[in-house]
């Protein structure tokens, strides 16, 4: 039996509910691969902020560092500005542990009503590689003449060759393992002639090393349109931090719901902490009602199992989710059913290992 030390930050809103269900499923799946988990809960988030004036303990990054992985629910509260909550907890985690690769799959499962109803199940199967440490999220900038009519704000994007190359290379490496072997790169190099052009140049250089891969480069506005018009044509997609963020909410709804969108923040250095969290946020509009779909958190937990090299456990979670969706009897409200969060989690946990 192998034991893994997992840090857990449930965070805010529905983050708490969906993380609980993910842990329930992990408890059931671990045994499939002779693994068990020891959970270290950290009470950080906006409630902690109300009490302590900060989102997490001062040394929170050091406290997280020794774990085998981090499971995170979501962060964000309607009464606190998002840049305070997110820059106080989530975003520094991605930077400190150099979680340069944000992996976000979008897969159209049998039993899920995509708004693009004519698309057959499994015809959409894309994997977005989102650059996760720099670009538009570099957190560099400043304010001048604040609180006056001359108020000026500068928010700088930072693109480095190293940063572009490692995410683009990771996308090509993954594409080599997938049957369709395609990579689409998303930029805005018609308007942004520095960073995005460095990205395009790097993409072309890496692509030249992978002649077996079919490539296309799309501008972000066109890409948004093509995600709806021809979602089935995309295989691996690689994009900058902000464009990857936007496109993965879009991809989520194309395959049915935010409630299905999983995400992994993978540290480039294996010894560093990787983090697994759904794409969605704390959903204040449905928080506290027990109706959030936990499948995005559960599928993110399955990505954690893959990362921990527990492939049979991961496959058992995927199979259980597929079964639940295809059965169609216990769907949560965002997928057209009436099942409550915990009922969905219970059912997936029961199906694991069947
Ligand atoms: P959101 O993802 O929280 O919600 C968007 C919409 O999708 C809402 O209508 C919500 O009800 C629905 N939805 C999301 N997840 C769902 C689920 N599991 N089941 C059913 N429906 C679901 O996005 P938002 O409203 O823009 O953001 C709310 C807060 O969350 C903000 O404070 C934002 O900054 C934060 N946020 C945090 C993270 C994170 O911590 N990783 C990610 C995104 C947004
Ligand atoms: C996500 C979220 C975060 C991001 C926010 C909450 C800062 O939207 O993980 O997709 O933009 O990265
Ligand atoms: Mn997002």
From TrEMBL:
<feature type="domain" description="Isopropylmalate dehydrogenase-like">
    <location>
        <begin position="5"/>
        <end position="348"/>
    </location>
</feature>
<dbReference type="GO" id="GO:0000287">
    <property type="term" value="F:magnesium ion binding"/>
</dbReference>
<dbReference type="InterPro" id="IPR050501">
    <property type="entry name" value="ICDH/IPMDH"/>
</dbReference>
<dbReference type="GO" id="GO:0046553">
    <property type="term" value="F:D-malate dehydrogenase (decarboxylating) (NAD+) activity"/>
</dbReference>
<keyword id="KW-0520">NAD</keyword>
<dbReference type="InterPro" id="IPR019818">
    <property type="entry name" value="IsoCit/isopropylmalate_DH_CS"/>
</dbReference>
<keyword id="KW-0560">Oxidoreductase</keyword>
<protein>
    <submittedName>
        <fullName>D-malate dehydrogenase [decarboxylating]</fullName>
        <ecNumber>1.1.1.83</ecNumber>
    </submittedName>
</protein>
<dbReference type="GO" id="GO:0051287">
    <property type="term" value="F:NAD binding"/>
</dbReference>
<dbReference type="Pfam" id="PF00180">
    <property type="entry name" value="Iso_dh"/>
</dbReference>
<dbReference type="InterPro" id="IPR024084">
    <property type="entry name" value="IsoPropMal-DH-like_dom"/>
</dbReference>
<keyword id="KW-0464">Manganese</keyword>
<keyword id="KW-0479">Metal-binding</keyword>
């Amino acid at each position: 039996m192998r034991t893994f030390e997992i840090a857990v930050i449930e965070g805010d809103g529905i983050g708490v509910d969906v993380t609980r269900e993910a842990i329930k499923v992990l408890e059931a799946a671990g045994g499939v691969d002779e693994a068990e988990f020891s959970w270290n809960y950290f009470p950080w988030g906006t409630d902690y902020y109300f009490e302590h004036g900060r989102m997490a303990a001062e040394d929170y990054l050091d406290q997280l560092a020794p774990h085998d992985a981090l499971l995170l629910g979501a962060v964000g509260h309607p009464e606190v500005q998002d840049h305070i909550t997110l820059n106080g907890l989530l975003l520094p985690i991605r930077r400190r542990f150099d979680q340069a690769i944000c992996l976000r799959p979008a897969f159209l499962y049998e039993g899920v009503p995509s708004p693009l109803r004519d698309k057959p199940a499994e015809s959409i199967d894309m994997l977005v590689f989102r650059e996760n440490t720099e670009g538009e999220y570099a957190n560099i900038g400043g304010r001048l003449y604040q609180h006056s009519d001359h108020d000026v704000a500068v928010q700088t994007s930072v693109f480095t060759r190293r940063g572009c190359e490692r995410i683009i290379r990771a996308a090509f490496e993954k594409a080599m393992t997938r049957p369709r072997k395609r990579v689409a790169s998303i930029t805005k190099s018609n308007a942004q002639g520095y960073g995005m052009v460095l990205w395009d140049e790097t993409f072309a250089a890496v692509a030249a090393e992978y002649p077996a891969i079919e490539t296309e480069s799309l501008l972000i506005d066109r890409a948004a349109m093509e995600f709806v018009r021809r979602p089935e044509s995309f295989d691996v997609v690689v994009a900058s931090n902000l464009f990857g963020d936007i496109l993965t909410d879009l991809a989520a709804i194309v395959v049915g719901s935010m409630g299905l969108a999983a995400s992994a923040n993978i540290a480039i250095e294996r010894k560093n902490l990787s983090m697994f969290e759904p794409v969605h946020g704390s959903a204040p509009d449905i928080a506290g009602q027990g109706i959030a779909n936990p499948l995005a958190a559960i599928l993110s937990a399955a990505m954690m199992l893959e990362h921990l090299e527990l492939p049979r456990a991961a496959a058992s979670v995927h199979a259980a989710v597929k079964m639940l969706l295809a059965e169609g009897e216990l769907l949560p409200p965002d997928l057209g059913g009436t099942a409550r969060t915990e009922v969905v989690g219970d059912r997936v946990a029961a199906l694991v290992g069947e």
